[in-house]
Structure formats: C-alpha cells, structure tokens
Amino acid sequence: MKIRQQKYCLLIILISNIFFTQTTYSQRFKYNFNSDWKFKVGDLQQAEAIDYKTSDWTSVTLPYAFNENEAFKKDITQLTTGIVWYRKKFKLPEGTNDKKIFIEFEGIRQGGTIYVNGQKVGLHENGVMAFGFDISNLIKPYPSENTIALRIDNDWKYKEQETGTSFQWNNNNFNANYGGIPKNVYLHITNKLYQTLPLYSNLKTIGTYVYASNINIAQKTALITAETEVKNEYSTPKTLSYAVQVFDIQGKKIADFSGDKTTLNSGEIKIIKASKKVNNLHFWSWGYGYLYTVKTILKVNKKEIDVVTTKTGFRKTAFANGEIRLNDRVLQIKGYAQRTSNEWPSVGMSVPAWMSDFSNRLMVESNANLVRWMHVTPWKQDIESCDRVGLIQAMPAGDAEKDVKGIQWTQRVNLMRDAIIYNRNNPSILFYESGNEVISEEHMREMKALRDTYDPYGGRAIGSREMLDSKEAEYGGEMLYISKSAGKPLWATEYSRDEGLRKYWDEYSPPFHKEGTGGTNHSNVNGSKVTDASSYNHNQDAHAIENIVRWYDYYRERPGTGKRVSSGGVNIIFSDSNTHFRGAENYRRSGEVDAMRIPKDGFYAHQVMWDGWVDIEKYRTHIIGHWNYTNEITKNIYVVSSGDKVELFVNGKSKGFGTQSKQFLFTFENIHWEAGSVKAISYDANDKVLSQDEKTTSGTPFAIKLTPHTSTNGLLANGNDIALIDVEIVDKNGKRCVLDNSLIEFSLEGNASWLGGIAQGPDNYILSQKLPVENGINRVMIRSTLNAGNISVSANFKGLQPAKVDLKSKSFVTKDGLTEQLPSDNLPSYLEKGPTPATPSYTIKRTPVSINSATAISNLDKVKNSYDDNELTEWTNDGKISTGKITYTLDKPSIINETVVKFTGWRSKSYPIRILADGTEVYKGNTEQSLGYITIPLKPVLTKEITIELIGVNSEKDGFETIVEIDPNKELDLFKDKDAANAKGQLRIVEIEFYKNKNENN
Question: Residue 550 phi/psi, 5° resolution?
Fold first, then answer.
C-alpha cells in the first residue's frame, strides 16, 4: 500500500512538474494594446480609480492625440494644451498567471502619470521617447478585469516635477504639440527568466542588440552577432542555453547558431551573445530595404522559454576623407530635413504604419537618400518605415537651437541614451545628431561615450550641426551654407527655406497669384520680423527654380571634385508642416509635396537632380509647370534636366536650345502658347538623346475621378486605419484638368468617419466635406470604425459627371483589449533601387594641387589658416589695401586652371582682386557673393607660386537678403569684430584650393 501511495505521489509530482514546465516556460507574447481606449479632456479628480464612470468619455483607438483635429487648422502656437485623461479596461489571456507583465509606450506628450488598477505605476515626462513599466505586481490574473489610466499634461511650459526645469525641445516653433497618446502602445508577457526590453528609463534595461562586423561586401559575408540582456526573476538560479536564428526576407532560415550555456542567480542580469559568419547576405542600402528577421531564443532543458524577434538589416559604413561610404560606395547626401511630427491634416502624426511608408517612400521616389528628423527623436513607426523603404536617417535626441548646461543638458543626455538603446537595431539610422546647433567639445565627448557604450558596432557617426572644427564630432555641417572637408564629412543640415503653395502654378494660371505676394503674419525663429515675405509666398515655378539654384552649390563641390568636398545637404522640408511658418498661411509650405503628399514641381526637380549616389546615373528631364494657357500668353518655359543641353518643341516644331544655368536649369524665353503639346528633349555633348518629357493640353472639365489608396493588408476595421482617396477633375479622355479649382462636395456612407483634406480657404477646409481641388487634384482621408463592412465615398460638382468609390473594411479581431496583430505586420520592404552597385559612384573631375607653404606681408603667422581644412580659421591682412597680398608655393610646378575660395563674408562682401601665377596675371575681377565657395577660372599657366592680391576697396551688400534665418554678420562668417563689415581694405580667406585639369601630368 505504501509503495502504491509512493508511486502515486511520484506520478502527481511528475505531472505537476510537466505542467509547471509547460506553463512557466512558454514563450513570450507581444500584444497590440491600442484598442478600446477612452479619453476625456480636463483635470479630473480620482479618474485613476477602478470604478470611475466613463460613460461620457470619447472612445478611441490609439495612436490618438486628443487635439488631432486641429492639425493644420490652427497655428502651432494655438494647438490646444492642458490636462487629459486616457483609460482602458483589459484582461490578461488565460494561462498567464505568475508571469512578467510589461507595458510599453512609444511615447506620450508631454508629461504623464500612469496608473494600473488605481495604483500609481510611475511618471514619464520628456514627451518624446518610448518608455515602459513593469506592472506585474499590480495586474489581476485572468479572468479578472484590469484598468490602466494616464493623466497627461501637454502644456508648452511643462516642467519636470523633480527639478522644476522645462524641456528644451518642448518648443512651439518646431515641435508640433499633438497631446495625449499619439503613438503606439504594447503589452509584453514573459516568463520570469526573460530577455529584457530596450527601455532604459524606469526599467533600466537595454534589450537585444544585433549587429554585423567583418563585413565583406564583394563576398557578401559578415560576422553576425546577437547580444541579449537576460534577467532571472525566479527565486532560484537558472541555467539556460542561447540560440540565434536568422531568416531572410522570404522567411527562409539562413543561419542557426548558439552561445555558451549560462547560469543566472536569482535577481541577476547578464548579457549573453553568440556569433557566426553568414554567407550570401543582402546588404541594406538606399532604396533597398532588405531586412532580416533575427530570433534570439532562451532555452531551459532544451525547451524554448523566451523568443525575441528583431527586424534588422546589415550594411557597412565609413566616414572619412570628407566622404560617406555605404557598402563601400561613396554617397553624397541628398535629402530632406523633415519635422519629426511628419504630420497630416486633421490627424497630426497618428497615422497607421502603411501611411508612414507611403510618405517616406515618396522621399525615396524623389531620389532622396536621407531624412534628417529635426530636433527630437522620431517615433518608432517612422524609424521602422525608413528601414523598409530604404531611406537613411539622421536621428536626433532632443534640443532646440543651442547648447545648454545643468539639468537641461542632463535631460538631453538621458534622452539620447534612451533613443540609442531603443533604435540601435534599425539599419536605416546612419547618424546620431547630438544637437541642432554646435555643442561644446565636452558635451560632444559625453554623447560620443553614449554611442560607444550602447552602440559600439552599429556603424554610425555621431556629431552635430556646425562642429566644423571639432576633434570629437564625427560629422558636421552648417545650416544654409556650403561646407567642405578632407576629414570628417560635412553636410548641410538644412537649406532652401523658401515656401509656396501647390495651388499656384505661375502668374499666368488661375488663381493668378503674383509671385511673392501675400505678406506674412509671423516672425522668424530668431525673433526677427519678416519684412519681405516674397520668398515665403512663391508660385511653383519660382519655388522649383529656387530648389535647383540652392542644390547646385552642393553638387559642384561633390566627391570627385577635389580633396576637400561637400558631403551634400538636406532641403528643409519634404511635406508642408503644421510648424514654424513665415508666409501668408498658418502652416509651413516649404515642402516638395503638400500636406497630403501630393507632389509640387520641386519634387520632380529633385528627382532629376538627385538620380545617382554622387554623379548622375540615370538621366531625367522635367518641364516645370503645365501646358494649358490661352492664345494671349507668351512666357518663359523652364526645364530641369540632367542632360548637357535641352531642346524644346511646341507641336513638333523646335524652339531651339535653352539657356543652361546652375547645371540643371534650362530657360526658354518668350515661348508663345499653342494648344497641343510641349516637349523637352535632353542630349549629351555628342547629341545623343538622354531623356525627355512632354506635356499636353487637357480638354474641358468633364468628370470627377476618385482613386483610393489603402494598406497592402486592406482597410482594417480597428478604428484607426485610414484610406486615402485622390480626387481629380478630368476631361473626356481621362486627362487631368490642371487649371481646375472646383469645390467638390463629398458624401460618406458606411463604416467609416470623415477626416477630409486640406486646401486654401476657411480653416484650411480641415474636416470639411466640401473641398476644392487645386490644379485639378486633391486628396481626402476616411478612417475606419470598429465595424467591418461596406463604405462608399461620393464626389459631386455641378456640371461634372459625379464619381463614387466603394471600399470594404476587414474585420480586426481583439479580445479583452488585446490583439496579436501589430500595426506594422505584413508591410512589405521596398527593393526597387536594388543592391548597392559595385561600380564607383563618381569620376574624377579635376585634380587638386597641394600647397606647400604661404607667405604674406601681414599676419604671416596666420597664413596656414587659409588652407588648413578648417572653416573656422582664416587669414586676414591688417585692413590696408597695400598689405592685401598672400603668395602660395605649390608642392610642384603645375598648370593651374581653377582656384576655389571661401572668402570671409562670402554672402555679402566682394573683393576686387587679381591673381598672379609666377608674376603673370591669370585673373582680375570682383569676387561674387555666395553661400560658401566660389570657383574662379584661371588662365592656364605652368606655375610654382600663385599670388592673390587686393587691388581696391571692398564692397558690402548682402547677396542673399531673402535668406533671413542667419545673420550674415554672425561669428560663422568670422565677423568677430564690430568694424569688419565696414572694412574697405581687407583681404580675408577662410580656405583656398588650387586645381589643374585631371588629364594634366605636370
């Protein structure tokens, strides 16, 4: 009997152990926590209580900013602020007792207190970064109901509770204040032996880190390493095995490797890792968002107990010799400085993940290779989107316009630390930006140490705007001005700040907006008043031309043009933004697409100029404007082309070749309009046709046309998904009527709510179901409800054939507030540009000739400053014309045909000079104003010495008065003494270079 009892007890123990093993050592789950929220505006008392009544609260699906419908309706400074509460009821899944429960917020705005089941969990205040909490001890097990509540304050003047200090980046010029919970939320359930989350604030954990080293691009190999921080919260030690599996983009397993066995004591945290050389890799690249799925697996007794899935890509980078290399190929930066909010009308930043792809992919389609998010870290959705579409990112932490000290600097450091940890597995991030303006060397060292601690193998440069002479920063670059370097790469962090509505083609097209008119109702960021707003009220012709002119300065100093080169720059901005503006509207219109992402002509101008890694690799041509005028119109036609010359044809008859300027702009003067077609054909120097563009006259408006856009997953009935619908006015042949501005009346039926679009008019037509097309097209949005089913959108205008589009939303299953379907599930990567080409990205255009030494009558000890590859040093004479002379001795006699010079006061000062080569005059004239460097052609003469000599008094007139963001007399122009701008006998050189023809052997 005792034996039977003993056997029975052993059987019970065995069964219990098996059950324990199965339930305790099950894998982790990550749940979409966006469904079934409610919110209420106001500082409500005890709204965290479990039994608080919410019958009059608004039901929403996250992400959702409580003031979202003010986006583009109101000036950024007028967006609603204050206290708002969010609440949600939910249940844990069955079988999750005695588990670890973590809540992850991708971000809230600005400061919020989080409660679970009436108990305070914690506080998060920076308004930018993701954060998380361990809520295991506050959660009620299945089948009990739980309550989570957040009290959030998005006041512009919000101050950190502990220190009473405001956050520098909570700024009403650039950081649009969409308050509440405008980003995604997740719930994580794990065992007590688990891989940590990359959420340092509050949790103090760093998660998983996957990286490649020993990369061989030609052989397609790399050493892949996965590091994982593991924590044991069981009461006894645990011994585990660590395995890594790598899957390609088709889901095929391409690598399977393991690390050593590890024992963790109770409460212990360790970092474990495993590595393996992997063959036949596809390297992530520009326009080639090739991503791998890496699974890091913890096993106990050969059973998987925890699996973390990381989407990442592998690529090789280098930052040296003034160049940026991606996968061993030189890349000149061509892109946009985009507001981090990346917002849309009436919804702000809280769009579904597929719309992030829709927007960011358009940047790539314009041939941009980089987006520099401005001032604050972008949300994870945009970061992951850039991974998929193949768009390089520069990731800031948080700041405003200057360096700071004390608590505000500590806030910036903490934010950068959290951002690096959270985003270090995203391959599209190539740059960490430590400041929107120069920071001290001490601060740069501190930021660099963060990178080296948390992301030592990510292949990312860390730097800041400016930092031109920094020994610590690994990249730098000015705003608006052109910088060059033979050392760390320098690229312009923002340029081309002009603005213009998509609505205005030119002065000859309805609504006949005269170029530059409209005034302003705002001032500049630096506080100065906009006295001349013409640059901020452009038509499309002028705006596109300005983009061409501004890019040319970077293009002509690109890699291949010398030892010191420009690494490019980013145009501010890509899409019209609900942030700092200076023109007639209450939002910024600097975008190459409008707020609904409909392209302006500037989009196509960049597409032409940027089609290549450095040099042009695919030739394009685009006729700016349209071909729908009247017989009375004679006007200039502008063509942007990468060809050597462009010929224009009207109805097949040649109008000759255009006048080329700024490399890419071709002007055809006084072209008389004729109904039919206008065609531009570009050729190379040998008359080979390279590319062409043609525009034709559209007929009388006949019908409305509707075209829907949804996710590849379809329109999901989750209360957050959005469908875009293009509305066009077309003629009988279906051709868009590009001069039509009809006011369309929309009607919506079925399971969706109306969001609308944007146009010039009352409240910018935000949320209105009447919306004018502009230039024959506009775009509207509808949002799904929680009910799946049919949706119909109709569009009408008197005299036009109406249109209707039918959609059907798909069921979205949630249970007890949870779903395993994540916002970005099943979204495809875009691979259109293909892998990084193995060919060089540029050819050598000219050969630099080194300077051996220099001598001068005045300030002899400073002569080297004029050729030291440091744009924050200069040589100057003593202010007398007679001493305005400096002589350079070259390394060897050479036939010099060009000099490239950056004179102090480059945008405003003109120097009358002559240049002598071994005593022979090879140039005489007045230097032109520029935004950096000028190229002076020289009569080719074999010479060993070259003299630059001042031959008259300086003249002073700002050549760029409409660029008002930067004071031309600031320190950047080296006007460190008050009298410099008025000096008449100064010769001042920041940097000088000499070049010979690339084919010369001397």
Answer: -70, -35
Q: Is the dihedral of CA 361, 362, 368, 370 positive or negative?
A: negative
Q: Which of these, 902, 855, 833, 876, lies nearest to 976 by C-alpha position?
A: 876
User: Mean pLDDT across the stretch 250-266?
Assistant: 97
Judging by DSSP bridges, how do beta strands 429-433 and 461-463 pair with one another? Answer: parallel
Q: What pLDDT is attached to residue 47?
A: 98
Distance (Å, rounded) from C-alpha 249 to C-alpha 205?
29
Furthest C-alpha separation in the chain: 120
In this structure, how many other beta carbons lie within 10 angstroms of the beta carbon of residue 861? Answer: 8
3-state class (DSSP) for residue 37:
strand
Spatial separation of the C-alpha atoms in residues 87 and 195, rounded to whole Å: 29
Enzyme catalytic residues: 494
Q: CA 951: distance to chain centroid?
A: 47
Query: Percent of the chain beyond pLDDT 70?
Result: 95
The rounded distance, in Å, linking the Cα atoms of 110 and 158 is 7
What does the pLDDT look like over 877-934, one tens digit per residue?
Answer: 998 999 999 999 999 999 999 999 999 989 888 999 999 999 999 999 999 999 999 9
- Yes or no: say if 593 and 583 are a contact pair by the CB < 8 Å rule: no
Q: How far is CA 801 from CA 65, 592, 705, in A?
A: 38, 31, 9
Whether 442 contacts 298, CB under 8 Å: no
As given in the structure block, the two tokens for residue 932 are 């950096």
Token pair for 58: 């608004």
pLDDT at position 153, please?
Answer: 98
Q: State residue 44 phi and psi, 5-degree precision.
A: -80, 145
Is 662 strand, coil or helix?
coil
d(CA 795, CA 138) in angstroms, rounded, equals: 52
Beta bridge partners of 339: 374
Exposed / middle / buried, residue 6 (Cβ in 10 Å: 0-12, 13-18, 19+) = exposed
Q: Is the pLDDT of residue 862 over 70?
A: yes
Q: What is d(CA 848, CA 867) in angstroms, rounded to the nearest whole number?
A: 12
At position 980, the amino acid (one-letter code) is: A
Integer CA distances (angstroms), 613 to 368, 529, 568, 602, 833, in order:
10, 39, 11, 19, 11
C-beta separation of 182 from 350 below 8 A: yes
Q: How would you classify the pairing of strands 568-571 and 492-495?
A: parallel
703-709 and 722-730 beta bridge pairing: antiparallel
- Non-local (6+) Cβ contacts of 101 within 8 A are 92, 134, 135, 136, 139, 187, 188, 189
Note whether 343 and 577 are within 8 A (CB).
yes
> What is the spatial distance between Cα 729 and Cα 700, in angstroms, rounded to a whole number?
10
Measured CA to CA, the distance from residue 955 to residue 561 in angstroms comes to 30
146-153/111-116 β-pairing: antiparallel
**What span, in angstroms and rounded, lies between the C-alpha atoms of 939 and 824?**
61
Higher pLDDT, 906 or 528: 906
Joined together, the tokens standing for residue 432 give: 């960490």
The secondary structure element, H or E, covering residue 228 is strand 221-232
- Long-range contacts of range 956-959, CB-CB < 8 Å, 24 or more positions apart? 956/905, 956/908, 956/909, 956/910, 956/981, 956/982, 957/908, 957/910, 957/929, 958/907, 958/908, 958/929, 959/907, 959/908, 959/928, 959/929, 959/930
Residue-wise pLDDT for 112-166, tens only, equals 999 999 999 999 999 999 999 999 999 999 999 999 999 999 999 999 999 999 9
- Read off φ and ψ for residue 552, nearest 5 degrees: -55, -35
- The residue with tokens 């299945």 is 142
Which is nearest to 836 in space by CA: 313, 357, 293? 313
Q: Which of 461, 460, 484, 491 is nearest to 474 (CA)?
A: 461
